[in-house]
Amino acid sequence: MKEKEIERCLKALANIRRLSIVRYVKKENESNVSDIANEIKLSFAATSRHLNLLASADILDREQRGLEMFYYISQSLPEPARRIISIL
């Protein structure tokens, strides 16, 4: 893994809200934006921004189902993220 990829991954996880999101999604196996926002007590828009950042770092994958977007832990999770998420 290149240093830039490691940096992107670590920056994505270096936020208490995003760690809470990842912990919740890991526990639930998958979740939609509304449920995640309710769980972490954050607005839908702010939660979506955090989720987009986590998806762009290949930490979460997403799938559109009807009007809802569902998120789950990426199958191609970068190794540094895998190690961090394993202890959440």
Broad structural category: alpha+beta
**In which order are the strands of the major sheet placed?**
1-3-2
From the spread of the alpha carbons, the general shape counts as globular
Radius of gyration: 12 Å
The fraction of residues in strands falls at 15-25%
What is the mean pLDDT?
A: 94
Number of β-strand runs: 3
Helices and strands, in N-to-C order?
HHEHHEEH
User: What distance lies between the first and last C-alpha atoms, to the nearest angstrom?
Assistant: 22 Å
Number of domains: 1
| Uncertain residue ranges | none
Number of helices: 5
Characterize the main sheet: 3 strands, antiparallel
The name CATH uses for the topology is Arc Repressor Mutant, subunit A
Which superfamily, in CATH terms, is the homologous superfamily?
Winged helix-like DNA-binding domain superfamily/Winged helix DNA-binding domain
DSSP helix fraction:
55-70%
CATH class: Mainly Alpha
Q: Quickly give the CATH architecture.
A: Orthogonal Bundle
Brief account:
This protein has 88 residues and is an alpha+beta fold.
Tell me what you see in this structure:
The protein has one domain (3-86): Winged helix-like DNA-binding domain superfamily/Winged helix DNA-binding domain (Arc Repressor Mutant, subunit A, Orthogonal Bundle), CATH 1.10.10.10. With 88 residues, the chain is α+β, with helices and mostly antiparallel strands. Helices cover 60% and strands 16% of the residues. The longest helix is centred in the N-terminal third of the chain and has 13 residues, at 16-28. The two termini are 22 Å apart. It has a three-stranded antiparallel sheet with strand order 1-3-2. The model has no long low-confidence stretch (mean pLDDT 94). Strand 2 (60-65) and strand 3 (68-73) form a beta hairpin. It has helices at residues 3-13, 16-28, 33-40, 44-56, 79-86, and strands at 31-32, 60-65, 68-73.
